[in-house]
Amino acid sequence: MSEMDWLSHLLQIITVSGQLEVRCAYGAPWRVAWGQAAANEIPFHVIVKGRAILEDPESKTARELVSGDIVLLPHGAAHVLHDGSGQRPVRTHESLGSAGWTLSENDSQGEQTDLLCGRFFIAPPHDRLIRNYMPANLVARALNGQAEEGIGSASNELAGLVGLMRMESATDRAGGRAILNALSSALFTLVLRAASQSGKAPEGLLALAGHPRLAPAIAAMFANPARPWKLPELADLCRMSRATFMRQFQDKLGRSALDFLTDLRMSLAANELKKPAISTEAVAETVGYHSVSAFRHVFAERIGMTPGEWRRLAHKGE
Question: For the domain that residue 230 is a member of, what is the CATH number?
């Protein structure tokens, strides 16, 4: 793994699993609503065919999604998908597939839409890392064929993955559920890759990682979070003055570089504390703290409980 591969570093720290839950095959007019997701859940939707309007009731915003679009909602916000006609939706009926997901259909002959809907699950406390540093909505597009982005682009990789998901969800073969869940997990990584590589990366970590001048700092912190990084050192990596680095990092991420480094360290510490043989003192040192009392204070502030409480909770959960 190269030092610049921030995404692999991130996914070594956080554990993400995916689950396809519903395949929706609707004719217009149709409408589906989802409530606020649990803290460690990220809903996702894949527009396999047709189009859909994604509506956020809280911000009163709407966005059109078309065939090949994949939307993640990292903050787990309540949302609505519909055909955009404003007409009363046709009643749906559900059946359970043998692979564990639900097929939801209606009998309308209107404009047809095919959706794959599911959730990603992130082990706590790493949901904080995702929600603090990812946009509320994240849309990536899967391109079919050799579009201008090139055959090796993340968008074309997504198209291949979505094609596999569509085939698996349309058949009833052995191992279908396991394959769909594994493909869903890969979908998470590919959507983040596609978003960070796009010319208009959204705010937060993806914008930062895709920013050619700031990427060296984020990669360095991921690669060696225990190092006692100082702002001038990080600025030097990016060939910027300290003031310019601080301003650009804050503008892109919404938080300071040292704030991000602290969150990264606490996520690593949470993983280490799950290991019964490692003392809190050793964990503190592993993530760059020479004072165990300072580590305990920061951990409690960021995670909402002491290292000892987190350790007991983690062992109880397992």
Answer: 1.10.10.60
Residue 99 lies in a domain: yes
Q: What is the distance between the alpha carbons of residues 238 and 215, in angstroms, rounded to a whole number?
A: 8
Same domain, 194 and 230: no
Q: What is the pLDDT of residue 209?
A: 64
Question: Cα torsion for 80, 14, 135, 163, to the nearest 10°?
Answer: -60
The domain of 302 spans 211-317
Per-residue b or e along 250-283, where b marks 16 or more CB atoms closer than 10 Å to that residue's CB: eebbebebeebbbbbbbbbbbbbbbeeeeebeeb
Query: 133: domain CATH number?
Result: 2.60.120.10
43, two tokens: 């809903």
- Torsion, Cα of 32, 38, 41, 45 (10° steps): 10
**Grouped pLDDT means (10 residues each) for the chain, 318 residues:** 67 87 94 93 94 90 92 93 94 83 92 94 85 84 55 72 83 79 88 75 68 85 93 95 94 89 94 93 96 96 94 79
Q: What is the pTM of this model?
A: 0.84
Angle between helices 215-223 and 257-273 (to 10 degrees): 20
One domain, residues 193 and 301: no
pLDDT at site 146 = 43
Check whether residue 75 and residue 188 sit in a common domain.
yes
Looking at the 3D structure of the chain, how many domains does it have? 2
CA 6 to chain centre: 14
Looking at residue 261, its pLDDT comes to 95
Nearest Cα neighbor of 16 from 267, 312, 240 is 267
Do 124 and 193 reside in the same domain of the chain?
yes
Q: What share of the chain is helix, strand, coil (3-state, %, to 5)?
A: 40, 20, 35
Which domain-ending residue is among 200, 230, 246?
200
- The C-alpha atoms of residue 256 and residue 162 are separated, in whole angstroms, by 36
